[in-house]
Each structure stands twice: as structure tokens, then as C-alpha cells.
Amino acid sequence: MTLVLQSPGPIVFTWGPFSLRWYGLLIGLAMVLGLLLARHLAARRGLPPNSMSDLLLWLVVGSLPLARFYYVAFEWERYRDGPWWKVLALWQGGMAIHGALLGGSAALYLFARWQRLNFWLLADCIVPSLSLGQSIGRWGNFFNNEAYGEVLPPDSSLWIQLQLPDGSRVHPTFLYESLWNLGLFGILLFLSYRRQPPPGSLLGLYLLGYSLGRFWIEGLRTDSLMLGSLRVAQGVSLLLIGAGLAVMLTAQRRASAHLSPVRPSPDLSTGIPTPEHPSKEP
Fold first, then answer.
1. H-helix or E-strand spanning residue 5
2. pLDDT (tens digit, 9 = 90+) per residue, 52-61?
């Protein structure tokens, strides 16, 4: 039996000149849920209660422009002939998660330095929310009829398919990534509650887990950003897999060094929380 998905369209409702789009609604929902979860996890790790609320604006300001400009850079042929304002036309679509990760990471680092909080600990508290938000946000692609995969043959036995407005059926890659991110969210949340992992280890696991799934799913998509014959997202995913492994290993080494009997006094520069100052850097 095959389940066929078909988008009802990108608009939730229209009221005069105002239209509410599914994509915006889902992104807003993801931000609210993500903030509530991040605040809860931050409190468990000893971070200041309002740190996540303050951080949210930094992340939005840092990630949105980079997400757009990253996309425009690899799709420059669509924009080079103008008009120039189309580069800024976010409402017309065109955002790249890897650009958002780059800009968000820079904003997170600057915020951590400004507030004298541990960067790795902050990152560990937000990556479960990030994975959950990506899972929710991918459904915006469904309503927009975008980010889908290759056309399936008429006799395909794939158990779930996406039907486009022209009647063709394709791989629902938006669904693959949504489910992958939802599973990754479950793992990250479980580890957050089971024990307090060394600061940075959840960030490393997120980079590794998300990039493994993205590398596979990107190979099925038909709208990949390209650099010559290279799918950009696959190349970046390989780099992030290596970065994720390095971050995880470094986090474990910092934890082992902190617990070593040769170094009995706490070293706050390792990022390991202490009872006196669980979230502050020296």
C-alpha cells in the first residue's frame, strides 16, 4: 500500500492584503518550542535563567542573513542581472541551513564572550532545539512543493510518495530529513537527561548525526546547490562529519583531564561546570 502526500498549497489563510504562509507559521512554532526547551535545558546545566532568551535575538540576527547570502552565492546566476532587491527578498524563498549554522555559530561565540559564558555548554543546550526546529521546518518545504527528490517510475513500490502539481510523484526528501532530525532530537534529548555530558559533546554529536543524514538525503534531491559537478551540501556535510568527531573527542579529553588525579583543582577553562560557577568562563 502506498501513501501519497499532496500539498494543499503554501497559504494558511488570506485576509485582505495579508497572507499567512505555512512556512512562516512553522518556523515561528519551531522558535517558540525551541526557546522553551533551551531554557529548560540551560536551567538544568546551571546557566543563567535568561541566557537563552537573550541569545535568541543574537541567533536570529546572525543566522538569517548568512542563510540567505549563502544561498544567493551559489545561485548567483539567478540574481546577477538584478534587480538588486531580489537578493534581500526572503519572502520569495531561498535559505540554506549551512549558512544559518555558520552565522549562528559566530553569533553564539560572540554572545558567549560578551556574557562570559561557556561556548560549549551553550551550544549543548541549543542543539536539541535546533534539531527539533529543523524537523518542524522541513514541513514548510512540503507546503511550498520544494526540496523534493527524484521522479519515481510509475510502478514504484515506495511506501510513501509526494505528488507534485503536475501529477508526477517524487521522493519526499523533506519527510526523510524531518524524520531523521526528529530521531536525532530524541537522542540528544535522551543524553541531556540521562547524564550531564561533557560540554561540547552534544554539539559534536549533532554535527555528526545531522551531516550523515544530510549527505544521504542530498543525493536524492533535484534542487541541490552546485559548485561545478559537486553538490555543495554533500561537501560541507563531509567537513562537518569530521568536525563533529573532532569536537566529541576534544570534549571527552577535556573531561578526562579534569577528572585526572594529577590535576585536583578545577580548571574552568576546560568548560567543565563546577559547583561555584557552573556556567562562567574565567
1. strand 3-5
2. 999 999 999 9
